[in-house]
Amino acid sequence: MFVDSHCHLDFPDLAAREDAVLAAMAANRVSHALCVSVKLEDFPRVLALAERHANLFASVGVHPDSDDVEEPDETRLGTLADHPKVVAIGETGLDYHWQKDAPEWQRARFRTHIRAARACGKPLIVHTRSAAADTLRLMREEDAAGAGGVMHCFTETREVAEAALDLGFYISFSGIVTFRNATDLKAVAQYVPLDRLLIETDAPYLAPVPHRGKTNEPAWVVHVAEEIARLRNEPLDRIAAATTENFFRLFRHARRS
Ligand SMILES: [Zn+2]
Ligand SMILES: [Zn+2]
């Protein structure tokens, strides 16, 4: 069995096909998926998915790209996270790719999420893009290690992976690792210890080869696992078992169903 550790089933393309998406997961041995929140306004729909389906979980958080949205504080995040199907805080982090002026509000929001995660005892889902040094700095300053978590959709260097691993974090690979030109990332996927690896789709984005360019869905996380198995010269079943174990170890509030 495989677990998709990060997807957005509340986004319109996937929400409109909810039953088909769940059926495709079952047909592809994808047993569970974590539906990740990007703004509080949409959180009720994310949580509703997790309440409707025993094998879906939810997170609560505000993405660093979401501006003009309700700004969370620690109390609000903690209150929303106090639900048995909410297993993580995020996605949160820094993204200087779209916000080229590296705004202070992103860093303040990230700090709020780290504090909330530590306070409520649920792990962090960290998004970082073109901001690795600041991301790691804030994680150290706010003691993100005390909350634990995952660097999701990892696209950074081996050195960044090493620093995140030193903080006790897991590294999650998306369909990007299947792209032919992702040479450096493939090397990182060979390097990360097996007991710290996660797999994800980030659906509806980043469909893996051979579905590149289409609307991604959790069923296709299998292609991410296949590529990692190939790169590490390990049986697919071993990657499946390890990433599933890792998921339930990290997201310890997630109940297997
Ligand atoms: Zn992200
Ligand atoms: Zn995402």
From TrEMBL:
<comment type="similarity">
    <text>Belongs to the metallo-dependent hydrolases superfamily. TatD-type hydrolase family.</text>
</comment>
<keyword id="KW-0540">Nuclease</keyword>
<dbReference type="InterPro" id="IPR018228">
    <property type="entry name" value="DNase_TatD-rel_CS"/>
</dbReference>
<dbReference type="Pfam" id="PF01026">
    <property type="entry name" value="TatD_DNase"/>
</dbReference>
<protein>
    <submittedName>
        <fullName>YchF/TatD family DNA exonuclease</fullName>
    </submittedName>
</protein>
<dbReference type="GO" id="GO:0004527">
    <property type="term" value="F:exonuclease activity"/>
</dbReference>
<dbReference type="InterPro" id="IPR015991">
    <property type="entry name" value="TatD/YcfH-like"/>
</dbReference>
<keyword id="KW-0269">Exonuclease</keyword>
<dbReference type="InterPro" id="IPR001130">
    <property type="entry name" value="TatD-like"/>
</dbReference>
<dbReference type="InterPro" id="IPR032466">
    <property type="entry name" value="Metal_Hydrolase"/>
</dbReference>
<keyword id="KW-0479">Metal-binding</keyword>
<keyword id="KW-0378">Hydrolase</keyword>
